[in-house]
User: Fold this.
Amino acid sequence: MHWRVESAGLIKAHAKDIGSLLGSDSALIEFGAGSIKKAQILFSENSNFTCYVPIDICEQFLNAASATLKQEHPEFHINPILGNFFNILDLNHLPPHKHRLGVLFGVTLGNFTQKQVPEFLRCARKTLGPNACLLVSLDILSDPESHQKAYKNDPKGIRKAFCDNLITRINKELNGNIQIDNFQYAAIWNPADYAIEMTYISQCLQTISIAGRQFEILPDEHIILKSSHKYPEDHALKLFREARYDIEKSWQDPNSSCHLYFLSSQPENKTISPMQEQPVFGS
Ligand SMILES: C[S@@+](CC[C@H](N)C(=O)[O-])C[C@H]1O[C@@H](n2cnc3c(N)ncnc32)[C@H](O)[C@@H]1O
Assistant:
């Protein structure tokens, strides 16, 4: 898994501030917990948390990370939930606690499409319930060249290996016959969506088969495997406001590449001010 140094450093630098915004006896609910390493930074830097709920769609990873955490932190109630964070999840089984903080760390929010971001924020609000807070990290828009540089294939080939793994899984799990060598990897900046697109460029005319369907791919045709959106600050503010969250506090890393937003959920009956008409992304 790709370990985001920027957001891990930010969490470490501000873990105590985050704790002071919450109060003692808090439950930490992590959406897309992965290796759980970033939540561990929050635990080790302050003692506000009594209960931790890692949520992930990958059962193997969730079980392994939770088991390790239980050994290292026997003082916590650890309640892993195998589930999809685009659903409203039931937290009624948790032991009593005073405050609740949901977190979505890493590049996950930036990987969502324009439709998925408000959908996630709505589900998180419903899952967490009234008066809960949400902490999310987002990559900040800077110059396209530096974004492209960060995603171009690296000497160890990790970026390309990530994409090759998707193709290998399509071939295995969807009975595909995609020839990886018929594509070239490139990281392409999409200015309309403020996104870096991890792309396979077809090197020839080819017909591929996936789950019994045939697709003709032209030479130089692009297949986008993953998009990583970068946010101008006003777009991030608009997103949160439209999803009925207030920004209580935000922090950014010294390179201004990543932002952490501490959000509070607005009460259901609060009237929202009229929004500007333009969509969040440029398209
Ligand atoms: C980019 S990783 C981030 C992991 C970790 N939070 C970090 O920052 O290092 C995204 C994680 O979200 C999980 N995930 C992806 N889609 C999900 C979904 N719809 N519901 C729950 N978990 C999901 C993945 O299995 C993965 O562990």
